[in-house]
Amino acid sequence: MKVLLITDGTDCTDSNETPSGIVYCDWVNTLTREGVPYQTMVTSDASPGSVALPTLSTTSGDGTQVANYEGVVVATSGPVGISTAQWDTLQTFEHQFSVRQLTAYAPIEQLTMAQIGTLSSEQAGWAAADTSQVSGYIEGNVVTVNNNGAATEIPLTGTNIGTPYAGTVSGWTNGPTGTSTYTALAAWPALPTTAVVLTPPTGPAPAGPLATGGKPTNQQPPAASKPSLYYVAVQVAPKKVSMKKGTATVSLKCEAKNGKAAKNHFCTGKFTLNLMGKTVTHSFRIKATKTARIAVKLPKKALLAARAAAAYKRHVSWHGALVVSTKQPQGPAKLTRGTLTIKT
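User: That's the sequence. What structure does it adopt?
Assistant: Structure tokens below.
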């Protein structure tokens, strides 16, 4: 799985942080912690459309089109820095390959009193409509609405009706009695125009003992292979600790899986602690079956919050997400997870 992460800001440092930058960094931390590959597209607010979309799909050797991304995260306020044509291309790609889009940051709209009254009236009319009165469907880029009752206000999303918000267009329109049509922002996939052809496999039959007298031979299934021994670092108690001089203690134990631990073997790797939107990374080297107590320096935000609480003689606590990565002689690292509660 790979995610396309779209943003118009990547700065989330304490001195220069922006709303979209904070959201972007939170998504980077989340995707990294979960081991999900991603690619960032940084748009230009001053020149929409100047940054090209990455290649969204590719054609395999047999002519089949394959999506390059299984998800899209928009970590910015609406279509900032992206042209209308690019949004059309992106939404067409999402519909064609059934790719989900998550708009992770959208500004709060403060309606005027007149707008609140209009919206309440529209919602009341829609709620009063009989459930069998209005139906609709989409074919290509044409949305067809059938209204079997009196004209009423209907909500539409993803069409040419309304105003842009959170990466799409939404709004209300008067649905007349009978049939009315609207234009979708992106066309849904058309039905196949060519017949599906099934090709049976060719070549020799699978090898194996032949049946005798119409009955299969007595063949024993192959013995299951024994899982191989490996080592992994895991979080152990205490998982609730107190902050001391700006640090907190993480307790890790090197455990052997699928067998007995060998002498002089070590778990090596690194762990990350995500706390208050910040990530702290620390390496470790622990002897097999032993436990290590590792002091980790906490982020600046945590220290400032602790000082503020101390000034009012109060106690606070935070919950940090812990991800432990243990190197392996062959193959990818083994990941374990935990939670560390830190009290002042």
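The chain has three domains: 3-103, 127-183, 230-343.
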